[in-house]
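Bench log. Compound arrived from synthesis this morning; before running ITC I wanted a structural hypothesis for how pyridoxal-5'-phosphate sits in the protein. Inputs:
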Amino acid sequence: MKKAMYSKGNQKQGLTPITSPWMHQLMEQPQIIQELFKTYGSPLNILHPKSLCLNREKFQDVFKELEVDGQIFYARKANKAKAFVAQALADHIGVDTASTRELSETLTLGASKDQVVLTAAIKTEDQLQIALENEVVVMIDNDDESKLINRLAKEMGVNARVAFRLSGFTFEDEKLYSRFGFDVDSFEDYITQLVGQDKAYTHLQVEGFHFHLDGYSIPQRSDALLQCIKLIRKLKNKGFEFRFIDMGGGILINYLASQSEWKNFDHLLKESLRQETAPVTFNYQGLGYWLEDGQVKGKRATYPYYNQVHGEQFLKEVLSFKTTQGKSLAELLNKEKLQIRIEPGRSLVNQAGITMAKVIHRKQDAKGQWLVGLEMNMSQMMSSSADFMLDPYVMYQNLEEEEAENAAVEVYFTGAYCLERDILLKRKITLPQLPAIGDIVVFVNTAGYMMHFFETEAHLFELAPNLVFTPKSHQISTRDFVKDADI
Ligand SMILES: Cc1ncc(COP(=O)(O)O)c(C=O)c1O
């Protein structure tokens, strides 16, 4: 008997993603999904703002538990959708904006002055003008920015609300390099010499410090926070007032259900690179490893998809760090009357999006490998690391109910760009049956950086539509989806 059914790839030796009930609710409704494809085309990004709410609550619970004044600014660079910004604003949290359009759109969506910060890496005059007109806090990265913001504020007859981005924190006797921000070691001299009445920068109203560390280290974040608190203590004695420290983003998330699967994949990958087993990646791609003199060398260059400590626990550990005097950072922040701010991107849209694409063709290459061509391209689901390592799901229109041993097939999903490397997942995926033309492949948990960050319009392909899913009841219909552009 054949039936419309969905199935996860790699039932054995896979990387099983953590999923949410809403994702299964959709995959259980093939007619509705096919309707959406008919109306909007392929691929489709589905956004679920309610998931942002759930993540937001968990962070706020940590602030409550540690009794700190905490505020969240959703780093919208993780996903371009307006729906998440609207949800963040409705939930009374803020938004971290990194470009003129991110800033102006967030303001248009109704953000108040305390609900936006501007952290753009390149700040243009028109962008700063918008920020100053709307009394948005600007994170200053360098002295040219100080100069420009001060001049604009003077011309506009306002004081610019600013925070200074710091970097170069010393951790375990080594300085943490960053191209961003002022060097923390010389910042005391900088601000005391240049900022304030009768100094070069008279129109900067200093409100806080900001940092965003590369990587995902908890102790590094705790240490940087402590160094900021110490610097603020010194500067308070020199007449500066600080209201907050913003520790940026980089809060790890956990994508995978099983630690043993995660460890096992590493083992399998190395075995396959040594050619001791069949390839587990397309044409033996090493994902950071390579084979040299029969030995696997290098380091896996993927996001750490499995993390025991993640999300709210990650935040709690950063803030619970105890100084040598036995005080926690949470206590020190309170003592100095400082608000702690975070700018989570990926971790706030965890579980909040999926990407679906239609199967267009199936073929076997000269090596006999099955390639399943999808109506999407590599830019529409691209990781900044070596691969997106979550098993996809396939929504079959006609799947044999009885699992037939000989129907199982190993495939790679290929995309529409003219590049040999447009292989949507580098990992080989074992499926219960070869997908048919028109079946749907579902990539889960793609909202954070995967669906939008690298998308391009090469070959004049349209960008993927983004549909916001807000179910009114368990019985869903196509009316539960609206285009993000229409928000
Ligand atoms: C300044 C700043 N804040 C916040 C973020 C968000 O980081 P994440 O998505 O890892 O939480 C970034 C990411 O690059 C950033 O540069």
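What the model suggests: DSSP finds twelve helices and 23 strands in the chain. The mean pLDDT is 97.
ITC booked for Thursday regardless.
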